[in-house]
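Sorry, explain these C-alpha cells?

***
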Amino acid sequence: MAEGLLAFDDEGYLPPGIHPATWTMVRERFGRTAVRRRLLAGLRDGARLLAAAGCRRLWLAGSFVTDIERREARPPRDIDVGWEIAGVDLAALARLDPALDPLQPDHAAQRRRYGAEFFAIAEPVSIGQLDFFQHDRSGRRKGIVVVALDDERGGPT
C-alpha cells in the first residue's frame, strides 16, 4: 500500500473523507494493473492540460479509487475527476481541448481521450459535487483522493 493512503475497508472503499495524495502515491496505489495504468496515463494527459490552463488540484473518485476488482470482479471503466476551476483560464482550456470546456463539456470525448470524465468544481458552490463523489450508488459514504497539480514529487506538471 502506498504510504499515506489508508487501507480499503471491507467493502473495498477508502474511509470516508477527502484524502490528500501525491501523484506518485496515486500511481503506486491505483496503477497496479494494465487497465489502471492506461487510465492513469489518460488522466495524466488531461491533468497536464488543466494544469497548463491554471488548475491547481484534482479530486479523484468513482470505482478507480476503490478496490473494484475485489468488489465486483472487474476493472474500473473510467475515472471520475473533479477539477478546481478557481484560477483557470477557461478560454485557454477550451483552446487546449474543447471537450474540457466546463461550459460545454463533451464527456464522451473525455472518456475516449483520457479514460476519465472531468467535472469543474467551484468551492464552496460545488460542495454538493464533492459530496456526491463521496457516496456510492446506494448512498454509502466512501473516500476520494485529492491531488495537487503542482506537486514537485511526481505531479503532472
Remarks:
- Helices lie at 23-30, 34-52, 68-72, 90-96, 107-114, 127-133.
